[in-house]
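Self-study notes.
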Amino acid sequence: MTICNRFFALAACAAMLGAALPVAAQDDAMSMSELLRRVEQGRVSDNRENQQREQRFKQTQGEQQKMLNDGQQTKRRAEARSEELEGKYDVNEQAIAELSAVLDQRLGSLKELFGVMQQVSGDTQARFDSSLTNIQYPDRSEFLENLAKKIGSSSKLPSLEEIERLWFELQREMTESGRVVRFSTAVNIGGTETQTEVVRVGLFNIVTDGKYLKFDPVTGNVSELPRQPEQDRFTNSTSDLFNATSGKVRFGMDPTLGGVLESLVARPNLQERVQQGGLVGYLIIALGVIGILIALERLVALGIASRKVTAQLGSDAAKSDNALGRVLGVYDDNRSVDTETLELKMSEAIFKETPALNRALLFIKIISVVAPLMGLLGTVTGMIQTFQAITLYGTGDPKLMAGGISQALVTTVLGLTVAIPMVLLHTLVSGRSKRIVQVLQEQSAGIIARHAEKHGGLKTA
C-alpha cells in the first residue's frame, strides 16, 4: 500500500513536471524510465541555478557592506563639520555682541539722535504724502522712506548729506506753506486728464480758473471737485486769484486743508433733499404750489376789488364793476320801500357778494392743515423703511438706514415749510376779504339808517 502511494505521488510530480516541459519533450517521453531520467536532469539543473543565486547574493552582500561603511564615514565627517560650524557660530555670536557693545558705546547720544531721525522721517513722509506740495515734489517720498529704513537697520547709519537733505525738505515745506505758486500739472476734468495751469495757495487749496481742485494722496492725481461751492463769490474768487499778477486778492480759503470742501461735496443740494422725501415729499410740494397760486390769485383779485370799493366810496354814482356799487344799486332800485324791506334787500345783496370775496379761502386753510399731516405720514413711512433695513441688515452699517431717516426728516420739513406760509397767506387773504365785507356792511347800515330817518321824519310831519 505504501509503495502504491509513493508511486502515485511520483507519478503526480512527473505529471506536473511534464506540464512545464515543451510539447515535443512530452511526446518523446513514452516510457517511465525516460520520465525518471528527465526528472533527474531537471533536479540537477535546479541545484545548479540555486548555487549560482547563492554566489550572486554573497557577492552583493559584500558590496552592501562596503556601501554601509562608506555611509557611516560620510555621517561621521558631516557630524564633525557640524560641530566645527557650531563652534564658529558661537564665536561669531560672541564677537557680534562685543562689537555691538563697542558700537553702542562709541555712538553714545548719536544713537538717540538717529532714533529721533527715524521717527521724524516716518512722520514727515506721512505728512508730505498728503500735502499739496507733493504735486510739485513727488520724489521726496522715496527718499524719506529709504532714509527711515536705513536708520532702522543697525548696520547702517545716515550720511551727512542725507541728514542735510532731511533738514532741507522740512525747511522747504515750511517755506512753501506760506507761498502762492502757479505751475502746470495734469488735472482730471470731466474724466479727461489734461495739462492745466493751476494755483496752489500754501497747503490749503489748489484752484484753477473758476474751479476748486482736490489732490488724492493715494493716487497722486489732481481732479476737479464734483461739486463747486454754490455761492458765486467763492468761485469768482478763484478766477480773481488765478488771473492776479500782484497785489491783494480776496479768496475763499479752506483752513481745514480740504475738510470743508469735502463736506461740501457730501452735502446734498435742494434738489437732492427734495428727492429724499420720495412720493410724499412731491405731493406736499404740489399742494404747496397749488396753495401759493390760489393765494396769489386771491390777493390780486381782492386787491383790485378793494381799490374799486375805495374808488366807489368817493363817487356819488353807483357803479356795477365793484361789490359796493352793486349794493348801492340795490338801494337805488328800492328807495320807495319801507326800512325793513330795504334792510332785507341790502342784506341779500351783501350775501351775494360775500361768496365771491371768500372764494377758495377754505381750500388754503385746508392745505395749511393737510401739509403737516402729510409730513407726518412721510415720517412714519420713512421710519418703517428704517426698521425694515435694521431687520434685514442689522445696525452695523448706518448708510443702510440713512434713506428711511432722510425721508422721515425731509417730509416733516416739507410739511412745515408748506403749512407755515399757507397759514400766513390764509390770514392775509382772509383779512382783505373781511375788510371789504366790513365796508359793505358799514355802508349798508349807514344807508338803512338814513333811509329810516328819512321815512320816519316824513311820517312825523
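Second protein, same conventions, sequence then structure:
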Amino acid sequence: MQSVYTEKEILGDALTAQKTATSEMNISANECVHEDVRQTMLHILSQEHDIQQDVFNMMHEKGYYPTPMAEQKKVDETKQQYCQCVK
C-alpha cells in the first residue's frame, strides 16, 4: 500500500531537514582549519539558511506553522537584552 503525504508533511520534513543541515554546516564551519574551506562552508551555510527561511515562510503563509504576534514591549526588551550581550 502506497502512502500519500500531505503538503504539510512534506514541507514539515523539508523544514526539519534544513534545520539539521544548517546545524551540521555550522558545526563544520566552526571546526574548519583551512580558511578557504571555512569560507566555502559559511557561504553554503548562508544559502541553507535562505532555503530554510523560504520553507518556513511557505509553511507560515499556508497556515501550517502559525506563530503568534509578539507584543512590541517584549520585542524591544529582547532586542535590548541581546544588544547588551554584544557590547
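Instructor comment on the second fold: Residues 29 and 54 are 22 Å apart (CA to CA).
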